[in-house]
Amino acid sequence: MRASATVVAEADGRGGTRLAVLRGESPLLLRRTGPRGAGGTTVHLVGGAAGPLRGDDLRLDIEVGPGAVLEMLSVAASLALPGRPGPPSRLTVTATVAAGGTLRWLPEPLIAAAGCDHIAVTRVDVADGGTLLWRDDLVCGRHDEPSGAVRADTTIRYAGATLYRHELAVGPGAPGWDGAAVLGGGRAVGTLVAAGSGLPEPGVAGPNAAVMPLAGPGVLATAVGADIREVRAALDPLCRRPAIAS
Amino acid sequence: MSLATLLLLADGRLPSGGHAHSGGLEPQIAAGRVRDIRELDGFLRGRLATGGLVSAAFAAAACGDVGRAAELDAGLDARTPSPALRKASRAQGRALLRAGRAMWRLASLPSREPHQPVALGALASAAGLTPVEAAVAAAHGTITGSASAAVRLLGLDPYAVHALLARLAPECDRIAALAAERHGDPVDDLPAAGAPLLDIGAEHHATWEVRLFAS
């Protein structure tokens, strides 16, 4: 299955944000949710079909204009599944954030079901003066099953320079992924990249988590847990919505 | 190419301060995740496939074209979210340059304190080695340093630890070959495999008052 979706958010000139484009197709359906107000606009990603399944090629493009505030959430975890033999499933998410724009990407976790083969590609480009909060959680296998194969490949650029470049591979074909260097038997991992203004305070955020100032203008919070609850306990407090920004 | 020169560069006795670093092993031992040879095996395989691959690719790239040192250094910054690990890498890069300047005629680098793989690539280039040789030295260094730290921290049988390193040698060659193949790629396209527990462990480790290793 091939599908693409696009969100373009822009300032409406009255202190709010309007969606100039909101277009999706199954399984990437998009719904505007929440009140229309000064706090920005919320869009939920709604899974319109099972998967991603092997062979799926999905793409989501997000554009946040100057002064616009967009929050992207999802209604449920996405579940990467094996499907028929074929190339790996792939989800490519691209986002651009203009100066003065804010993007909060806070979806539910991706679950790597046993036997899946999935590639998640993320390319984010934030202009100088833009604000980003980018969360990705991964659960390695459903309850009591081995993890499928997931490769996450993330590049986040800020003000024209690469701020954060990260790949993570879990499951069959990823040597040592469950060893003590990578996840150490943990079955859930979450990362949160913050760039621009309102960065979280660096420090150790629990025994298996840390909030780290990047070399560039941003912060990474990472947490590893036996399950997703431990990851949420470390990262959710860093994702709370600020009091309505003026 | 000179095999003896490659051996010199990869030798743990090179006076570049590598013995002061456990490659992230000390905090994982403290967390109870590495207690025996089997768990050391898992640690080293993960380290080799992540930091080892990245170090090998960047050492190969710097060896292939020392003129890219500045952009490669920035690329490693973007791949090293932990400030403690950035500091450890730059300290080792500086120490390696010091040793290297005494051994060969090094090209001048934009930084006195480059990331360790960039320094290693610069030394390899000055020594007349090829990118794949630089990659092998880098990949080899990422596991041998941690392995000798394991002997000291856990009191493991040194024969058993070296037997493990012998089993990992083909994987080390494979990772180095993968890394070297890509050495001419744009910096954003070079390997970026990360290891969350190494980052988290390094940040916790940096807060300890007493530790045996610098990182």
Automatic annotation (TrEMBL), chain A:
Annotated Gene Ontology cellular component terms: cytoplasm
Keywords, ordered alphabetically: Chaperone, Cytoplasm, Nickel insertion
GO terms for MF: nickel cation binding
Name this protein carries in UniProt: Urease accessory protein UreD
Family affiliation: Belongs to the UreD family.
Subunit note: UreD, UreF and UreG form a complex that acts as a GTP-hydrolysis-dependent molecular chaperone, activating the urease apoprotein by helping to assemble the nickel containing metallocenter of UreC. The UreE protein probably delivers the nickel.
Main location (coarse class): cytoplasm
Subcellular locations according to the entry: Cytoplasm
Cited function: Required for maturation of urease via the functional incorporation of the urease nickel metallocenter.
